[in-house]
Amino acid sequence: MKKTGNAKKVILRSLTGTLVVSSLALSSTTAYAANLSNNGMSNMINNLMNGASRMMNPGGEFGGQQASASTADLAEEPTEIVTGATTSSAASLTVDEANATTITMDETNNDIKISEAGTYIITGTCSDGNVTVKKGTTGVVLILQDLDLTSTTGATLSINKGAEVKLIIEGTVTLTDAEDPTDEDSEDTDVADAFDGAAIKAKDGSSVYLTGAGTLNIDASACKNGIKVGDEDTPAFVIDGDLTININAANDAINAGYDMTILSGTLNISAGDDAIHADRILTIGSSDGTGPVITVTTCEEGFEGTVVNLFGGEGTVNTNDDGVNAANSDGTYSDELDFSINITGGTWTVNTGGDGLDSNGNINITGGTVTIKSASAGGEAGIDYDGSCYISDDATVNNQSGISGPDGEPGQNTGMPGQNGTPGNPGQMPGTDPNAQNTDAEQTTDTTDSDSEETVTTDDGTVTFGWGAGTYSTYWYEDGVRQGTETDTKCFSYDGTVRGREIYDPDSDAWYWLDANADGAKAVGKEVYMPYVYQDEDQWSAEEITANAMNSDDGLSDYIYTCITEGSGKWVRYDENGAMLKGWVTITGELAVLYPDQEGNTYYYDTKTGAMVKGEVTIDGVTYHFDEVTGELTE
User: Which of 240, 302, 580, 584 could form a disulfide with 511 if both were Cys (CB 3.0 to 4.6 A apart)?
Assistant: First the structure.
């Protein structure tokens, strides 16, 4: 995304906290064009492959890359963090079960209207009915107890303008909005006016405190929103307690026209549009770092508001578009508030097909644990902002997909989607330098941190060959020149973008990836898919393909020839130090931090090529079966 404006240039740091964002692979793998070298047939094999990286999570394969540095614009001080309502007047209402009115709903007792203060217990089963707290009614404690309620005419529960309700969930409560979504635009004004488009609707000026210890199932999959809150002057809608809320919505799971505050509870969300949206301020968790547990299995955008505050809790958010978004399409509160994403605590994992954190204004990360894996193709980035971005030393940010600031200069916007993704980072085949790599040596998963490998330096300490440590990243030098940058002629390009270069380090006997979009920084903790495809391959004869395959020694010729002719390729993995892994790999330790959804899984990578093994394979005389898609050892 292009940005405008000016800000100070600083380097993104690896900090002490954790932020996670990840990206969906959105399109299918195609025949990638490789830039062929002009140095003769012996070098053509070095430009054979383009690749795409993969990040795994329960939702499938994701693109993204481990970030090691960024040139994006970061601020030295945070901007003001504005908070919304943290409580509701309804929270203090007293529950009087001894004098409560119990109402059992069924097919005949199906239209419940509450117009006086008091405690009400609603239970029963009804296939078409409604509960309504009438306009201006305050002091209402509403206990939904083992209730199964469906409505085809308006919301199952309507809290009208100015009403005050403490809503308590006991047992298992299921609310299903079965309205006809076409009623919203009906030419019959009575039909259109009656349309609520939500299972729970809290209208303008109402005050609602949703709590309890039960389970609330909201099914809005056939209509629109799960919970819809008033458009203006709504004092507060607060979710707090030990309850579990499961929402399946065709549009937004939760949509608030003013503020939305979620202090605790467990939320499981599937949404066709936003998971949780507030026009003004969305607050999740408390300033002490406590908060809800939120899992968003699918949505377009995750958390959205003019201001989004993540103060505490934990969650995993899987989105097709932006993960956390400070924006408001109608600009209702943009004159009052600056767009801002503020993360002060909690543990958050965001897997997104767009930007990980996307603010039309500022981003402040002052604490917490956050991991970002997002699609870097098409200008998307892990962190994208128009104003300023501040990251303190009390936060750990594991951003695997780059930063794009107001100058429109992505820090590590590398575009590396998954196996079924758009073109990403290219790779160079191991074995193309037969004098360097000992392919017959015993392979292990223990690799030496390349930062400590021997380098050749001048008297003044300048690196002439080998690894050199920058402020936050490690770089590879040849003849005193940093490799893997956009000006490195040995790098691979796709669609006009220089992706990077893979190099072999004889000191550690391992291959590494240099990321051109991070000025050649060594990338760590990622997987890469490398298809073997020639540029304009349809114009190459079988003899030419064979000749180029034969340029690789070490017995790889047949393997490469098959990959070329079948248009196949291989998955490889780089460890937490950036070295290509070979042999048996079990995801533990630092790898488990980078791939939390693969923790405990075991894989096998060919000891010669580094290719991930799939299907039924015999290793050292023992037959194993690996998943045909993920490569995980199954038996």
Answer: 580
Q: Which residues pair with 615 in a beta bridge?
A: 626
* Confidence (pLDDT) at 214: 98
DSSP 194: H
Write b or e for each residue in 408-419: b if 16 or more Cβ atoms lie within 10 A of its Cβ, otherwise e. ebbbbbbbbbbb
What are 246's two structure tokens?
Answer: 């499961």
Strands annotated E in 533-575: 569-574
Predicted pLDDT at 457: 52
Q: What is the mean pLDDT of each run of 10 residues along the chain (635 residues)?
A: 28 32 30 27 30 28 31 77 88 94 96 97 97 97 98 95 96 96 88 90 94 97 94 78 96 94 97 95 95 95 96 93 87 85 95 87 94 58 88 84 64 30 28 27 30 46 74 77 84 63 79 78 70 42 51 47 57 80 86 78 85 88 89 88
Structure tokens at 140: 């209402």
Element at 603 (helix H, strand E) = strand 602-605
Structure tokens at 281: 């301020």
Give me the residues paired with residue 604 across strands.
Answer: 584
DSSP letter, residue 532: B
Q: What is the CA radius of gyration of the chain?
A: 28
Rounded CA gap, 337 and 81, in Å?
Answer: 10
* Beta strands 463-469; 157-159: pairing state: unpaired
Among residues 175, 243, 167, 253, which one has the least CA distance to residue 208? 167
Distances (CA, A) of 555 to 395, 440, 552: 48, 11, 8
Q: Give me the pLDDT at residue 613, please.
A: 86
Count of beta carbons in the 10 Å neighbourhood of residue 454: 12
> Are the beta carbons of 477 and 483 closer than 8 angstroms?
yes
570 contacts 450 by C-beta, under 8 angstroms: no
The helix (H) or strand (E) run that includes residue 170 is strand 164-170
Helix, coil or strand: residue 555: coil
Residue 446: what pLDDT?
30
The CB density around residue 83, as the number of other CB atoms within 10 Å, is 14
Rounded-to-integer distance, Cα 266 and Cα 188, Å: 40
516 neighbors 484 (Cβ within 8 angstroms): yes
Long-range pairs, 621-630, Cβ under 8 A, ≥24: 630/56, 630/601
* Model pLDDT, residue 549: 47
Q: List alpha helices for 216-272, DSSP H.
A: none
519 strand-pairing partners: none
Burial class (CB in 10 A: 0-12, 13-18, 19+), 609: buried
Helix axes 557-566, 542-549, angle to 10 degrees: 140
For residue 371, give the nearest of 59, 586, 593, 72 by alpha carbon.
593
